[in-house]
Amino acid sequence: MSLSHAPHDDLEAELSRIWGELLDVDPEEIPADAAFLRLGGDSVLAVRMSAMVRRRMAVELALSDVTVEITLARLAEAIRRRRAGGNGAQRALPVEIERRADPSAPFPLMPLQQGYFVGQHDGWELSYESAHFYADFGLAGLDGDEAPEALEDALARLALHQPMLRARITPQGEQYVLAPDAPGGIPRPRVYDLRAAGPQEVQAHLLAVRHEMRTTGPNPLHGPGLDIRLSLLPGDRGRLHTGESLLIMDGWSATLLNRELLTLAADWNAVLAPLDVDFGDYVTSLGRLRDSEPYAADRDWWHARLGDVPRPPALPLRADPLDVRASTMETLENHVAADRWAALRDQCARREVTPSAAMLTAFSVVLARWAGHRRMLLNSLQLNRLPLHPDIHRVIGAFATTMLIPLEPARGRTFAELAAETQRTFTEHAAHNLVSGVEVSRELARRRATTRPVAPVVFQSTLGMDAAIGAQAESAGPLGDLNFDDFHQQLRTPQVALEARFYELRDELVLVFSLVKELFDTEQVDAAFADLLALVETLADEAGWDQVVDLPAAAAAEPAPRLTLDRLPEPDTDHGDGPPVDELEQRICTVWEEVLGVPVLDRGAGFFSLGGDSLLVVRTLARIAKETGGAPSVREFLSAPTVAGVAAAVRARLADARP
């Protein structure tokens, strides 16, 4: 790499050392005018960079300071402004992470955890008994005698190192960590020995385990949030099965779990670097943000835009999501070969667009073609680890959050132009992520007077995560060599109709649709997925970026006679206004007043308009059950969240309970 502007002072020299460490390049070879993105950086590594700057240089950067497009020189200038208390200093994160005095004390659920928690109470449409991710992959050259003990030992050591592997969720919606010596504190793997079994028995076993773990995930309300199983198969082969509750770990954590578990299994003497922080410390410290000026500024920024936020894409539906009771989500998967994926990344770098922004652009184009319009609201799952500590990226926990992204790919533009605009939109919204997408969605739903999901189409990219965490080893000692060419996965998450996921596996790009198949026409889904794969494949070549993208003429969706995802019918919740009509309604008013801390005088008052949220619904129902002897389900509460509506549901429950 030629130097166009070498670092010229101590500050830029220190930054170049940080960049060199993160990007695995020689610090002396980093031009001061080269963008972080152009050198191989991405948004995941940018968070780590912020944390390192904070620790080594005692400077707090704002989220808007550290974009992937920033150059070394511009970052140095931002740091100088911070040190001088100049322009925008108020946007820096005003929180210092602190260790909790009692690591076993309960702490709150993060917003997305709250959504999963309520979903496991059958609160939402498209809910499941467990929100979890399942995966299994092959093992070759496995030592059937040594592998079970090595896996159990590795899991026990990892649970001591990573407290969230010992986490539990209370019925009231709090989380805590069991002591290592508490009953059930250390999760243990389950081992199946089929080394002497025939091919048919092996196949039947694998299908049965896969079905069980896909449809019944680990639930930290009742036990460990992690389910690890090992199948010992003939010919020194095996399969490692993992089920991970989304209540205790996100996608980053799941990857970290695999890395650390297999590292420990490979070497009885391996020792992981100690952690100076845990997830409970992070969540507790983060709670202080809500009283800060930056949080208020982000909340105001989002609220000012909610009046013009579009609806989700108008995808045609076969059924109303309220009427669907799915047990699993359908998975469509395809791969882009390693050489084509490398070429695609090179094309992204040349245009200073992240691969994630390119994939989001491609997904929005495909959705526009499918729905017949261009303006839409998507939900994006974010690996949102704020740079409060340099060890944050090594901690297992449910850090993830969501971010709403309004998109409108314009007609007559090349893909390169669309991707650049998407990246600008994404960067602008990500700079205001102190307020999570879950909180923004609640406010949007309140304004629209709906309890239905406002953004059920999700985009998730973990591209770049392997580089940030570290590549997976090829072998795990007694467990043998890892075979990800034979990899199976299944996602189950509430309130999601369709999710597109993009990640890397063994140097290939993997594209996945996870969807509730009962909602959509199979041919339309297959066509959309094929369209996405074809579009992504073209991006490995320069011509794919320079072609004008074919898009529908309509910007917004027009009302259609058929059922579409953007215009779902609302349940009739009008039970009338006025004072409580009987003792039951008065008792419900009293419970709401105690839970919400506001007067409740009107039987038509809405729980959410009074300041309630989904987690408080669960707690309120427990109080109502105690006060009245019967309570509706979370879903029944949400279908008519007024005093009168809940009272009607209670009456129905009490009537059903009579002999």
UniProtKB/TrEMBL annotation:
Highest taxon listed in the record's lineage: Bacteria
Cited Gene3D superfamilies: ACP-like, Chloramphenicol acetyltransferase-like domain, Nonribosomal peptide synthetase, condensation domain
Pfam families in the cross-refs: Condensation, PP-binding
Cofactor: pantetheine 4'-phosphate
PROSITE patterns on file: CARRIER (PS50075), PHOSPHOPANTETHEINE (PS00012)
Region of interest (Disordered), residue spans: 560-580
Segments forming domain Carrier: 9-83, 579-654
Protein name from the UniProt record: Phosphopantetheine-binding protein
Species per Swiss-Prot/TrEMBL record: Nonomuraea salmonea
Organism taxonomic ancestry: Bacteria, Bacillati, Actinomycetota, Actinomycetes, Streptosporangiales
